[in-house]
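Fold it.
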Amino acid sequence: MKQDSKYTVITGASSGIGYETAKAFAKRGKNLVIVARSKENLEKLKTEILNDHPEVDVIVKDVDLSITSNVYKLYEELKPYDLETLINNAGFGNYASVANQNLEKVETMLKLNIEALVILSSLFVRDYQDIEGSQLINISSAGGYIIVPNAVTYCATKFFVSTFTEGLARELEAADAKLQAKVLAPAATKTNFGNIANDINGYDYDKSFGTYHTSKQMADFLLKLYDGSEVVGAVNRESFEFELKSPLFDYAGKSKHNQTVEK
């Protein structure tokens, strides 16, 4: 470990948006902890990064975050490092009607998309909320703001990510915390998502969507969110334009009907 240096943690870094995001942060000279199940892909990414940016430090953590105990173990292993940014990108989708969805797959999706994200976010906020320059970026989806046909359960997991992160951002603001919480909401992006969501190989984005972004484009959008002051970075599902926005969900922060908490 390099002394006196900060690290960016990226989960789901073995492919897609996470892979390109890791390269984008390395280009800025950021030291990295890259996390995913595939050690082979992570080592490939590490080699690519170090070939171009030998000055950065890249730590590989191959771990299955759909197993709850692994999530806590990972965070314990991160404690020796001075973290600057946590990007919760790990997750996957599922296309199926609710009546016909594979419940074993759905159970794993819920654990990864929601449970792992909440645990890592909570532990990170607990340790870094008062550290200047710290950021938490959770990856949601355009389907975290609109219900997409044949993807109801997946969208519900991303609605959770969106509302959780927006609510956390409001909570941090009210507490005058220094950590910023942000949410990225991609629309169709050419990754391995299509294969996993449909349980196939060779998913054709041109035939299925026609319009989509590349992983590199989404990594660039993520950097715009990272550099900006807004909470939400969202791709418009119809125009495919990327916009930085204030929180989109209503917040009952000043409602007279909120619970009164004694101090």
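The CA atoms of residues 17 and 217 lie 9 Å apart.
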